[in-house]
Amino acid sequence: MRKKSMWLMSHFTSILIINLVSINTYAVSPNAPSLVLTTDNTHVQAAWSSIDDATGYLLFYAPYPQASPIGSVDMGQELGFSVDLPLGSAFYVAVQAYNSEGYSNYSNIEYFELIASSNLSFDTVESATGRVWVDRNLGASRVAISYDDEQAYGDLYQWGRSSDGHEKSTSDITSTLASSNYPGHDDFITGNSVSNNRDWQTTQNDDLWQGVNGINNPCPAGFRVPTSDEWRIEMESWSSRDSAGAFSSPLKLVVAGSREYSDGSASDKGSYGHYWSSTHHNGHAKAFAFGSSIATIPSYGYKRASGYSARCINPASESIFLDKTSIYY
Question: Which CATH class is domain 6-113?
Fold first, then answer.
């Protein structure tokens, strides 16, 4: 679990208080229970104190950090729960005791985020532009030894999603769009809705991959997804604008292919490389693509439900980059 955000906690509390006023219609009610919440990888465990005059307990939950909608489950006389959830799941939790006389105040409010552990094996590399990058694609087991090295392909991310398992080539596929920034499962979400620009979310969010503190930044601590301008500068430094130039660069980029936004199927593996940038554009997101005779960053952007490779950059070297950009324009 991460450190609590006091503003978000108070926001959730205020919503719960409104609910409490609407249901607590009795003069006498039980004392409030005390809640303890723990997580271990994908396992979530909650326990609350027993209240002498309580005949049951209501469990309240809401997505973190939105705090809405709030759901509830009547737990009867149970004093806790233990459950395994997908990486990316994030919820507020609170408990209320009740008896024939009414409802207690709410317990302390806790929340959890099931974030993928940062046990990635990687080193860093300095590119020709002076920027410092992770030396391999996210999910790759090694630095590439050829432009079509499958052990260096790594994972294929949907734009703006965290490392919740959807990026794996074996992940299941669903057509149900996510209603929040955290889908709460590890499925690849197809994006066939024109109304939301074929995103994996019902409501688009441009801030998911912005900076090292981006909501769903998939990179190791201190790194972030590069902008389209940063990719452009790297491309301009290559010996040739194609897959050969991409691999011969210090970044050792590969042709890992992609997953189609419409059905999650694999495409272009061994022929084209597609790398996300953090740059959004008119409801889409810009990506860097290259093949045997081309390397380009289209101005129109790509569907965010597409699955592309991700490589991470260290923003600490930004001043070096800014000093060198004029060389490549």
Answer: mainly beta
